[in-house]
Amino acid sequence: MSLDITTLGKDGKPEFWVSIGLDVHERFLELAEFYNLQLIQRLSDYWSDVEFEVHELSAFETEIETLRDTNDKDQRVRDFLENLLSFVKFAKSKNEKLYAIAD
């Protein structure tokens, strides 16, 4: 089971996504809470869906960069942050909102 951050195709199904496992999610949220990163903290419930509107993506990107630049040496979290950052930039370029879908 994972939490998938995705864009949706015209058919409403996930098109591209980045997944986060429960163990990495826990550390990811600890860091977000420590730095008071509000958009990331919306992902705190691993079992709930969340939407990020297009106008929120730049701020979301900044929060991810903050974690990436200040993260401890947990390589799993760093890898996830790099993947997520690339994905947010992709969504911004397509002017698409992001969805976090608990599956």
* Count of DSSP H/I helices: 4
Main sheet summary: 4 strands, antiparallel
CA distance, first residue to last residue: 6 Å
Per DSSP E runs of 2 or more residues, the count of β-strands stands at: 4
Radius of gyration, in angstroms, nearest whole number: 13 Å
Class computed from helices, strands and strand pairing: alpha+beta
| Order of secondary-structure elements | EEHHEHHE
Rough outline: globular
What is the mean pLDDT? Answer: 93
Helix content: 40-55%
| CATH architecture label | 3-Layer(aba) Sandwich
**Count of the separate structural domains:** 1
Q: Which topology does CATH recognise?
A: Hypothetical protein yfbM fold
Name the strands of the widest sheet in spatial order.
2-1-4-3
Approximately what portion of the residues adopt beta-strand conformation?
Answer: 15-25%
Low-confidence stretches: none
Main CATH class = Alpha Beta
Describe this structure in words.
This protein has 103 residues and is α+β, with helices and mostly antiparallel strands. It has one domain (3-102): Hypothetical protein yfbM fold, CATH 3.40.1760. It has helices at residues 22-34, 38-41, 57-70, 75-94; strands spanning 3-8, 14-20, 50-52, 98-102. A 4-stranded antiparallel sheet has the order 2-1-4-3. The longest helix has 20 residues, at 75-94. It is globular, with a radius of gyration of 13 Å. 21% of the residues are buried.
List the helices and strands and how they pair.
Layout: E1 3-8, E2 14-20, H1 22-34, H2 38-41, E3 50-52, H3 57-70, H4 75-94, E4 98-102
Antiparallel strand pairs: 1-2, 1-4, 3-4
Helix pairs in contact: 3-4
